[in-house]
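debug: dumping io for the single-chain case to check the tokenizer round-trip. Nothing else runs in this session.
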Amino acid sequence: MKEMIKKMREERGGFTLAELLVVVAIVAVLVAIAVPLFSSSLSSAEDAVKKANERSVKAEVTTGYLADGFDKTKYNNMYYSANDKGDLTGPASAASEGAKYVYKVTIDDSTDKTKPTITVTDVTDGEPTN
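debug: decoded output
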């Protein structure tokens, strides 16, 4: 019996077409499942970077606003930008060269100068229209 199996293996040198098709089908199914999961992860990671940048800008502007004696002229309508690594630079122009993210800061201290409303808006794709 062992000799017969050994002889069959020696005669049959490779894989059959059916076996190769099964392997290709399995790989195709795995790729079809993995690609959407990967792109979804990238999207959620990018959203997390944007939110973290917005919090960083808001903290920096709040600190500067309070340290400068509640003078909003330096920070109001100022832009911050971030490169593809997420490193924030500011202030920046509205159309910062090579910036992946751009944020606009608006300060409203009309009700209370010690507790201003600081808004950080993502304007990467241009100014929002109302």
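debug: round-trip ok. The chain has a mean pLDDT of 79.
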